[in-house]
Amino acid sequence: MKKYNLFTTKEIKPLGYIKNQLRIQAEGLSGNLDKMWRDIKDSKWIGGDAEGWERVPYWLDGFIPMAYLLEDEDLKARGQKYIEAIIANQKENGWICPCEDSEIPAYDTWAVQLITKTLKVYYDCTGDERVPEVLYKTLKNYYELLKNGTVKLFTWGKHRWFECFVAINFVYDKYKENWLIELASILKEQGYEPLDFAHTYKAPISQTPQHTHIVNLAMMLKYEAISHDILGAEYKNNAEYLYQMLYNYNGTPVELFTGDEHLAGLSPINGTELCAVVEQMYSYEILFAFTGDIKWLERLEVIAFNALPGTFSDDMWTHQYDQMSNQINCIKFPHYPVFGTNNPDSHLFGLEPNYGCCTANLSQGWPKFIISAFMYNDSEIINTIQIPTKLTCDKANIELNTEYPFKNKFSYKIEAKEDFTFTVRIPTFVKKLYIDGTEAVKQDKLIFEFKAGESREITIGYKVEAELINRPHSLKSVKYGSLIFSLPIEAEWKMLEYERNGVERKFPYCDYELIGKSDWNYGFSDVRLKVEEREVTDIPFSSKNPPIVVKAKMKHISWGYERMLPTVCARVPKSTESYGGEEIKELYPYGCAKLRMTEMPLTD
Known about the structure:
By secondary structure, the protein is of the alpha+beta class. It is built from 17 helices and 27 strands.
């Protein structure tokens, strides 16, 4: 059923602002963890004594494609050090994780599933011919351990069993051996079935079962797409049903589901974990590749252009564990937090707020998004995400120059090496469509036929309108294309330097509280909105110089604070009755506004 194949870092390279954003990531926390964070620097995966489970594989899963997209030799060499150690330490029987044989039965084999996925990413970047054999031995050993009962799926491995299918599908395509089908069946049988628990998405509960854990759910959306083929099962589009259940009862304006740490409902002051952001993005990338259904791409864009940058500082040296739609402060809670099951520091910007899983896993968001900009099949190349990129492949050379989503203009330079069909996805929010300066009939795809040797330049433009969209509790959010806009709150960044777990939190490896310094208690007083485009700077999602703003008429309202939490706005305003004069406020893209109000009412 698979519709499209993904290109790799060998064919796709970032350009323009998206390359700048990736370079910011490389020069920030993501590109420096191996220099100072014990869970990476001293990991058991490379012979140290620190964490030897998910954190190195998580980090490499994004660090390696980042290095190869940027063609940075230093980054490549540092990633290679880890790969060499992992391959060298694989045991003769195929076991690859850093634990003793006696520890294997109690070792959560989620790490096996994750490292095979990471090694496949490394292979895509390098073509290292050792990797297929390493993966073959790893999966064969995993199959034997599962079949003879030495290991069983539990906890994380039980709820993420489908992650292993990235490697299983790859190895099966190469070797065609039936034990891989049996391995797939064992994982499916021992893993949890998401459809059995979808009814639990409807309301937050005080318990913390794995089937409401937000990262498990973000990964889960792709489970049927990635597993049904090798399992010989009919594809029933379960992802859409599960998505609708999650979004209707837990959705946010930026296409996330609240989960701090577990599903949290429709409140704008509940958070979403950063791991869930990047895993939901990856699920949508896989869902489109396997199904060809373009709705996953539009949902992907909204997360990538809003939720992803919205949870980082401008320089990507710090991140939040939990982001909130309405966050007027990011100050450690002195007593109990507003979050369902996360700690009082989960919304601070820092090295390792709450848990370190996000510190390791944050690296995959931008690189995999860039790699997904173009996909292909036997006769077609499709531009799935319109970000500035260059594609060099057997069929064609394609260069796309654009500042989308901040500006809706696209310039393609195409050189065909073979006959092929070039497809450009058009989002549903486009009001008018222009091709080479002439208005065209609005459609969901543009299709261009190319002959070998043909060169052509194509320009495309959109007309998009800013609008208020409905949110729960009679609140509204501003949407312009794939961008969501927020009322920014002026922030004082209070540095916190200290030592914990053998790591000195000293600048730039430190934490910050963000203290709100400007008014936030507003509602919209007019539905008319004005868009103003500005320069896209070297920091695309700058909190100081946003590349686009929306001007809205607003008035003060009596909003109030959440009960016993004077640093958190109330879930809903006490009153929508306005006071004072009307003001024209500049709304920033959600990804630029680190303190923000995103869901607000219309005033009376």
